[in-house]
Prior knowledge:
Blueprint lengths: L4 E8 L3 H12 L4 E5 L6 H6 L1 H19 L14 H25 L3 E4 L1 E6 L2 E6 L2 E12 L3 E3 L12 E2 L1 H5 L7 E5 L3 H13 L2 E5 L11 H14 L2 E3 L2 E9 L2 E8 L4 E6 L1 E4 L3 E3 L32 E3 L10 H15 L13 E3 L4 E6 L2 H6 L4 E7 L4 H5 L6 E7 L4 E9 L2 H13 L4 H6 L9 H11 L7
Parallel strand pairs: 1-2, 1-6, 2-3, 6-17, 8-15, 9-10, 9-15, 10-11
Antiparallel strand pairs: 4-5, 5-6, 7-16, 12-13, 13-14, 18-19, 19-22, 20-21, 21-22
Helix pairs in contact: 1-8, 3-4, 3-6
Bound molecules: flavin-adenine dinucleotide (FAD).
Family: Belongs to the class-I pyridine nucleotide-disulfide oxidoreductase family.
Enzyme class: oxidoreductase
EC number: 1.8.1.4
Amino acid sequence: GAGDIHGEVVVLGSGPGGYTAAFRAADLGKKVVLVEKDATLGGVCLNVGCIPSKALLHAAKVITEAGEMADHGITFAKPKVDIKKLEGWKASVVKQLTGGLSGLAKGRKVQIVNGYGRFTGPNMIAVEKDGKVTKVSFDQCIIAAGSEPVTLPFIPHDDPRVIDSTGALELDGIPKRLLVLGGGIIGLEMACVYDALGSKITVVELMDQIIPGADKDIVKPLHKRIEGRYEKILLKTRVTAVEAQKGGLKVTFEDEKGGTITDTFDKVLVAVGRRPNGKLIDAEKAGVAVDERGFIAVDSQQRTGQRHIFAIGDVVGQPMLAHKAVHEGKVAAEAAAGQNRHFDARVIPSVAYTDPEVAWVGLTEAQAKERGIKVGKGSFPWAASGRSLSLGRSEGMTKVLFDETDDRVIGAGIVGPNAGDLIAEVALAIEMGADAVDLGHTIHPHPTLSETVNFAAEMFEGTITDLI
Ligand code: FAD
């Protein structure tokens, strides 16, 4: 049937995946409608994810570095934190970007429909706003509904002292003692912020290392540094109960042998992962299959089982990262516009913007061995990098992995300040099928941290001459 509004391409959700898909489809000549339940565009990433967290991490970095300059002869007064002003600055960064998106949408004549969208049929979405329903019909649809934080049944999530990442980014005071439940990227980034702001931090993680999934070698320097700064890092430990009490949140921890201890915190940040929003959009009414966890399966063009309905971003699976969503958004929009575009990226880099940063791309050593690849590696310790020492930091490491049969780059892990920026070079190397000589013979600017990639390749080749 006819809708109140019709889009040749209707995009559900305006996060990095959704806005990218909408803009690309519009640039390719499609009449695009973008449905978003929130008041601003940009999704989790711009509003309550990547961007506000990086603004606060910048503030944390300045505080921490200023403090550490005392070791090098420069002492500043103890920082005074005007939390309202800091919160306001963070909000202004977000506003500038989300406002920018509105302008870009207008410029492309992308029609924004504000409200909560649910499928009512294979070519229709009903968008509800304050009880009023707008019917939006489509020829093709791109689902970009994203994800939300996982909640746990034994935690009183309605207590204001229990927060998720969104609550942590709101900077509603600085808790004296903060428990970060979950030692993944999001939990550790927020721990870094609150540590700098003056909270005493405990991190609890179920697995045997923080950032499970990343190479142990590159996680170690981060672990070592935060171990020295935080109250406690509890590994192989499960939280079994959180009890709201007048004086704080009483938390029960259980170690792997079943032994329990309790401790009381002012706030608990629950950062145990994100759950896709696939189950919340009545996808079955459009004939789109959603698995029991809420993920939507897609082919290499991002098409669901219904060829005219695509899905992208966090709602289609791991890794739940903005740059993956953006890439998939372009693939879906171009396929929807009739181009023969497929998702064929070899690798997706991951970064924890902690202090130090931890970044990796491609295979880890363990994964390469599991696949029967003869792995060779070049590891370069930043203690031998002039630039790193000039930053007052020596704990970093760049580890590049090669396939011994043809010397091609298959993965890398980097830990140290700015590791997230450095990993892009290795991602490009893998995409282009570069080998050790390509990395080793490319002239890198001196003195930069980027040289450590060059040196790691030379370590593998055995051609390194001096460590500078
Ligand atoms: P989202 O960004 O989740 O957007 C989905 C949008 O759809 C939302 O605006 C939502 O309101 C809307 N929506 C959902 N359902 C409906 C509906 N039924 N009707 C209408 N609208 C709907 N990733 C990185 O790559 N780098 C980082 O540094 C990084 N930092 C992060 C920090 C934090 C604290 C968090 C929480 C996440 C971070 N991420 C980071 C992850 C990143 O935010 C996500 O991977 C990314 O936002 C996913 O984009 P998306 O387009 O799939 O969906």
